[in-house]
């Protein structure tokens, strides 16, 4: 269990983490989401005692990191895949970690096997490791002490599709063993497949703490409309806006409508005599739910390509 209580971190005028109170429970994968700069890494660093909270507490199994008697046995983390000495091999890196924490050397071979690094890969010096190999090595380090709590910051960065699938299965099996698995990612589709629970933050504040299914169900279903008559679409957009729907348009012959059913859009188009070439409802996704949830908290919102939001 990871317990955050009023957790706050300020860097000068920037509030990176703002009074975050949440429990990350064992036995499931909790996805940690938020736009760039939302405060995910800072939160994880505070759990590991690498950053000191300005206020509040971050506890692992009810205790602050500095009070853990055998930290590596209680919490394992992958924060920065490149955190290995450039001239040291992956195996030597893990052996040093094992030695300084009273862990048997054979455990190094076990975790190397678990993450799929063979003898040759484990003998390579840190500077020659690819990002993907660095991620696997970092995960091996997190698993070394067989801890009950695991945190992974962007673990699939730099992995190929096989690697991404492997991480997904690993996270799920670690949670199935009853461990607490807290994982941040920018890949929404991946999170949709991996996580049971989601914690979403924006500008350091908690936006959502709920099961993945609930978060997705809460997002709007979008209706796509295409017509060969752009003027008709403008009239349709005006009428739909007047009924409270939200409209965006990526091209003159296309609208995306939320806040109203596809049937209603079809009825209004019929009343206005607008000929349609497409009227389709698109299921809610985590990607869309995330955009809706964090719309007010993105630091640098991009303008959608070709987007003309009315
Ligand atoms: N050491 C630091 N000194 C000053 N500001 C910092 C420091 N570390 C983080 N910040 C700021 O705190 C905020 C949160 O950063 P953080 O890296 O925790 O976000 P994040 O959610 O992990 O972002 P990303 O998804 O881009 O990795 C940002 O505005 C960042 O610039």
Bound molecules: adenosine-5'-triphosphate
Quickly give the CATH architecture of the largest domain.
3-Layer(aba) Sandwich
Q: Oligomeric form of this entry?
A: single chain
Give helix % range: 25-40%
User: Could you give the distance between the termini?
Assistant: 45 Å
Organism: Micromonospora krabiensis
InterPro entries: AAA+_ATPase, ABC_transporter-like_ATP-bd, P-loop_NTPase
GO molecular function, one term: ATP binding
Domain ABC transporter: 2-228
Characterization of the model:
Residues 2-228 form the ABC transporter domain. One of its GO terms (molecular function) is ATP hydrolysis activity. This is ABC-2 type transport system ATP-binding protein. Pfam families: ABC_tran (PF00005). Keywords: ATP-binding, Nucleotide-binding, Transport. By secondary structure, the chain is an alpha/beta fold. It folds into 2 domains: 2-211, P-loop containing nucleotide triphosphate hydrolases (Rossmann fold), CATH 3.40.50; 222-309, Alpha-Beta Plaits. The protein contains 12 helices and 14 strands. It has helices at 40-47, 71-74, 90-100, 106-114, 119-123, 131-143, 161-176, 188-194, 212-217, 230-242, 262-272, 286-294, and strands at residues 2-11, 14-24, 28-33, 55-60, 75-78, 149-153, 180-184, 197-202, 205-211, 222-226, 246-251, 254-258, 278-282, 308-309. It has a 6-stranded mixed sheet with strand order 5-6-7-3-8-9, with helices on both faces. A 5-stranded antiparallel sheet has the order 13-10-12-11-14, covered by helices on one side. A hairpin with a 2-residue loop joins strand 11 and strand 12. Helix 3 (90-100) crosses helix 4 (106-114) and helix 10 packs across helix 11 (262-272). The longest helix has 16 residues, at 161-176. The two termini are 45 Å apart. Residues 301-310 have low confidence and may be disordered. It binds adenosine-5'-triphosphate. Adenosine-5'-triphosphate binds at residues 11, 14, 16, 34, 36-42.
């Amino acid at each position: 269990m990871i317990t955050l209580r009023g957790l706050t971190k300020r860097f000068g005028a920037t509030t990176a983490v703002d009074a975050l109170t949440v429990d990350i429970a064992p036995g499931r994968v909790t996805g940690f989401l938020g736009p760039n700069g939302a405060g995910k890494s800072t939160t994880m660093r505070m759990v590991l005692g690498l950053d000191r909270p300005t206020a509040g507490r971050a506890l692992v199994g009810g205790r602050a990191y500095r009070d853990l008697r055998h930290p590596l046995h209680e919490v394992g983390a992958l924060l920065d895949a490149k955190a290995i000495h450039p001239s040291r091999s992956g195996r030597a890196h893990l052996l040093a970690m094992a030695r300084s924490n009273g862990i048997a050397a054979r455990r190094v071979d076990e975790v190397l096997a678990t993450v799929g690094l063979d003898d040759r890969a484990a003998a390579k010096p840190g500077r020659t490791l690819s990002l993907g190999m660095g991620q696997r090595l970092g995960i091996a380090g997190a698993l070394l002490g067989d801890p009950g709590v695991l945190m992974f910051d962007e673990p699939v960065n730099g992995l190929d599709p096989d690697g991404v699938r492997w991480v997904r299965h690993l996270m799920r099996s670690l949670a199935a063993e009853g461990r607490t698995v807290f994982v941040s990612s920018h890949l929404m589709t991946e999170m949709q497949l991996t996580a049971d629970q989601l914690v979403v933050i924006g500008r350091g504040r908690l936006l959502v703490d709920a099961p993945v299914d609930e978060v997705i169900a809460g997002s709007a279903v979008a209706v796509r409309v295409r017509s060969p008559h752009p003027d008709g679409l403008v009239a349709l957009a005006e009428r739909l806006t007047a009924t409270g729907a939200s409209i965006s348009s990526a091209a003159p012959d296309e609208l995306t409508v939320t806040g109203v059913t596809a049937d209603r859009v079809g009825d209004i188009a019929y009343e206005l005599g607008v000929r349609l070439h497409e009227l389709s409802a698109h299921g809610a996704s985590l990607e869309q739910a995330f955009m809706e949830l964090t719309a007010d908290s993105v630091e640098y919102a991009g303008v959608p390509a070709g987007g003309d939001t009315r």
